[in-house]
């Protein structure tokens, strides 16, 4: 099997390594702005060429490339795993088209818990969804001495303002199919984990989850659980 990796950064390289562990015969292709000096991985000069030359593709680059990846997955009928879930918002028509054509589209739960229950609850009707993400100011690029709410508003706006920090909000919006998801982002110098608290209320009752993520051992900007969740999703992609 030929696996394409769009974005060979922290997550992309971890997923390539995991793919090799799952199947040492797997061929890894990648597309990235940067040259990757690793043996046995093949650079492709464009995203389109990556899709043409691979059986399935992992997107682990940036929300801005997601639309093109979805279009190419449709054009070439290739299974796809999207890590930059923020980029899925606004592309619901393409997602529907991919589902209609029965192409495998995998969205990992990332750095958040309970998405299986939330998507089940959505079938019965959801009345309210809230997400509070609390991070150390440094991981949001801020210098603060005390706790401060830096954003409060709807999910689309949160994704525009914090594209690299708000994948969990997009994942929750997609799982719950709830348009008015309220997001609060809090910078707190007293925390050293990336915390996400979710509440969902609906005909089924109420769900409350809290995930306290430690940074990944190789890159403090990425939650370790997001990488592990990507690995688990990769197993589904190539199975
Ligand atoms: N779903 C989740 O819960 C979750 C959690 C963490 C990160 N993410 C997302 O996953 C993605 C990857 O995260 P990461 O930590 O590996 O980031 P990273 O910065 O370590 O790696 C991204 C790589 O993509 C490349 N890239 C970006 N845009 C590109 C473009 N237009 N063309 C070519 N190459 C491009 C960069 O050069 C870099 O090597 C990010 O969008 C991040 O927001 C999702």
Can you describe what's shown?
It is a single chain. The longest helix is centred in the last third of the chain and has 15 residues, at 224-238. Helices cover 34% and strands 27% of the residues. With 239 residues, it is α/β, with parallel strands linked by helices. It is built from eight helices and eleven strands. The radius of gyration is 18 Å and the shape is globular. The chain starts with a strand and ends with a helix. It has helices at residues 10-22, 47-53, 66-76, 92-100, 115-124, 155-161, 167-176, 224-238, and strands at residues 2-6, 27-31, 41-43, 56-59, 79-82, 105-106, 126-135, 148-154, 182-187, 194-202, 205-213. The strands form two sheets. It has a six-stranded parallel beta sheet with strand order 3-2-1-4-5-6, with helices on both faces. The chain has a five-stranded mixed beta sheet with strand order 8-9-7-10-11. The chain has two domains: 2-110 and 225-238, NAD(P)-binding Rossmann-like Domain (Rossmann fold), CATH 3.40.50; 115-214, 2-Layer Sandwich (Dihydrodipicolinate Reductase, domain 2). The mean pLDDT is 94. Helix 1 (10-22) crosses helix 8, helix 2 packs parallel to helix 3 and helix 5 (115-124) packs parallel to helix 7 (167-176). Residues 7-12, 31-34, 60-63, 65, 83-85, 108, 110-111, 164, 167-168, 171, 219, 222-223, 226 line the site of nicotinamide-adenine-dinucleotide.
